[in-house]
Amino acid sequence: MLAAICGLLCAPLFFNLGFWHVLRERFLLWHMVVAIGMIGQTLISSGIILWLVPLTHSQMNPLMQAALAISLSGACMFAADFIEKDRLSEATRKALRLCAAFIVISSAIYAFKIPAMRDVGNQLYYASFIPMMLVLALSMAQAARRGSRAVWFQIIAWTPIYIIGLVRVGSNLGIGPEPTDALVPFTLAIGFEVLITSLGVADRFMIIKEQRDHARADAAVLGSLSRRDPLTGLMNRRAIEPKFAALRADGFDTFALVDLDHFKRVNDDFGHACGDAVLVAVAAALDADDDTLAVRLGGEEFLLLLRGPNAAARAERRRQAIPGRVARCGADLDRLVTASMGLVELPARGMESIDFAELYTRADRLLYEAKSAGRNRTMAEKLTYFEPGGTKVVASAAA
């Protein structure tokens, strides 16, 4: 039975390692420390360790004290990190960590069997557990009073060990009955503690993981919103500009700047609600797909990034589709809404170093030319290498 309990105590080592791989929370490591100490104590106190390693009685005693110290100090550290942040005061967490250090120190002093303390060493050793037990009980009471969910797993798990510990400490201090062999009940209490605490760890792990996943999802949504125009749903400049080099590498070699003609008059004459409906219709006319990225740069200015065959012609068809799409959008307009476009074509290969700002400047110049030439048209140019680091206009045409 004791050997089976030792096997049970090994289970947290494996699932905590699995949890740690997903979520790096310190309480998982401290739970492993507690389990290791309890495994060691059970193996030594039951004598099972002698099946594995030949030890003398004088060797087993300090090892058992060390295992107990590891379990108790680990339990204090576990409680300090396991209980929810807002359910335990920082002073109480600090007290738990100090108790963990105190248990290790007092156990080490007792193990060295200092001659001057020979007569009272045993009593001092058992008395040293009282502050730890008191702090542990007060911390659980505080956390329960503040509405902690995690602490109830600890209360249930540690109650049997706590009761047995109080009896053992009292009997060794001369309070209550004479010390008796409590190996079996203590080992069963250890097995119960590990089982319940493991359930608590799994529960806390799932809560933290769910909170983390929600936080990541919220961050992803906020990040997506920051890269999307809230009115049209198109990407904005913030989403495109940092990725422009990668988009160029993916074959997007046509840069078309689209601006609505006399859009200010639409807002002035028909109101901003009508202007917003026009912008939404323009976004639909730009018809983004896998080979066409549509971006709202701001106001009535849009950008098309295209790749593949006939990219310039596809961009022009989208520009020409704007008046019809706006006319069908339901806005109460008495005029057509047209658009002008400045378009720059890059070679399929080469000129990877040209950046977004330079292309924008070239396309904006062409757009200005289209506006000056009467609007509702496209001015385009095709670029190629002239010399390393330079460009040359090969063809320029109005459409």
What would your notes on this structure say?
The chain is an alpha/beta fold. It has 15 helices and 7 strands. It has helices at residues 2-22, 26-46, 49-52, 57-82, 90-111, 121-127, 129-145, 150-172, 183-226, 237-240, 244-249, 263-270, 272-286, 311-327, 356-372; strands spanning 235-236, 254-260, 292-298, 301-306, 339-345, 378-385, 391-398. A 7-stranded mixed beta sheet has the order 1-3-4-2-5-6-7. The radius of gyration is 37 Å and the shape is elongated.
DSSP strand count? 7
Overall spatial form = elongated
Low-confidence runs of at least 5 consecutive residues: 221-225
Question: What is the terminal separation in angstroms?
Answer: 90 Å
Overall pLDDT level: 82
Structural class: alpha/beta
Summarize the biggest pleated sheet.
7 strands, mixed
By DSSP (H or I, 4+ residues per run), the number of helices equals 15
Strand residue percentage? 5-15%
The largest beta-sheet arranges its strands as 1-3-4-2-5-6-7
Binned, the helix content reads 55-70%
The ordered H/E elements are HHHHHHHHHEHHEHHEEHEHEE
Radius of gyration: 37 Å
